[in-house]
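Exercise 7b. Backbone tokens:
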């Protein structure tokens, strides 16, 4: 059987231990080319650059740009073909509709999907500390990813989905669960405190609450403390339970057709007069 060719990227940067763990694990089942950001690009979503510098790397290429830049450069700029794009392994979970859109890890997968390549975005979480503590390895999520990558060819998954979102624990885990991203976003706007102003962070704070607007004393609550609000089908519930969350997703901006839109357009055309006059037949 021909080994698949995997494009490996991320948003934590090419020197990230999460990317190194995936590289070592995936090489057992695939040919792997790394095209990853030269430095940390967390939280940039699907931002793209118009021009980037690219350096050679022992595993492939380091791009001075965003994760989406990496996917675009590899899929359109290299004289190679890829069977799958894997983005990760991200430092921290990517759960919920808003956070998924905010993630550079997912952004690379979305860019790949737009360019016609199947993709898998991989994120790692730690149930007790939210973000992985120092010294912990990415061996478990890397192994989960390899097991999935081995089973994806011929599965028909990408006949239905454009890309997959995976959240795997850093330690022993439960089942692999089919999930959906939870829609749970709000933002708090307030004046900065004196301490925040001293840090030159701006006079107004715009704080997104990715964790369901719970009144938590610290910025990143532990996952067990926020378990109650999440429905069982959601990616966040799977993460709280210590399971592996797998969401099959399509690229965004799909058109929606509704009678209300038809009615709005018809009313506008009938009632609004500030439009260019019809062309004169003469």
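Sequence design result:
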């Amino acid at each position: 059987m021909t080994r698949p060719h995997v494009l490996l990227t991320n948003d934590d940067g090419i020197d990230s231990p999460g990317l190194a763990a995936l590289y070592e694990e995936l090489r057992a089942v695939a040919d792997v080319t790394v095209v990853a950001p030269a430095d940390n690009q967390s939280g940039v979503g699907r931002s793209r650059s118009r021009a980037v510098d690219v350096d050679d790397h022992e595993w492939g290429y380091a791009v001075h740009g965003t994760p989406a830049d990496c996917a675009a450069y590899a899929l359109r700029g290299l004289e190679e073909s890829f069977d799958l794009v894997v983005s990760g392994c991200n430092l921290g979970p990517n759960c919920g509709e808003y956070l998924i859109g905010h993630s550079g890890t997912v952004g690379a997968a979305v860019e790949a999907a737009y360019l016609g390549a199947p993709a898998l975005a991989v994120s790692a979480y730690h149930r007790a500390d939210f973000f992985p503590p120092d010294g912990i390895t990415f061996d478990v999520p890397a192994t989960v990813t390899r097991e999935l990558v081995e089973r994806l060819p011929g599965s028909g998954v990408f006949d239905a989905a454009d890309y997959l979102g995976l959240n795997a624990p850093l330690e022993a885990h439960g089942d692999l669960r089919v999930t959906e991203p939870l829609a749970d976003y709000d933002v708090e706007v307030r004046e900065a405190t004196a301490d925040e102003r001293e840090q030159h962070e701006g006079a107004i704070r715009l704080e997104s609450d990715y964790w369901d607007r719970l009144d938590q004393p610290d910025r990143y609550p532990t996952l067990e403390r926020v378990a109650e609000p999440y429905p069982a089908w959601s990616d966040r519930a799977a993460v709280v339970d210590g399971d592996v969350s797998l969401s099959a997703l399509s690229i965004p901006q799909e058109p929606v057709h509704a009678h209300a839109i038809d009615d709005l357009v018809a009313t506008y055309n009938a009632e609004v007069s500030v439009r260019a006059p019809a062309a004169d037949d003469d």
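Instructor comment: Residues 5-181+223-249 form a domain with the Stationary-phase Survival Protein Sure Homolog; Chain: A, fold (CATH 3.40.1210.10). DSSP finds nine helices and eleven strands in the chain.
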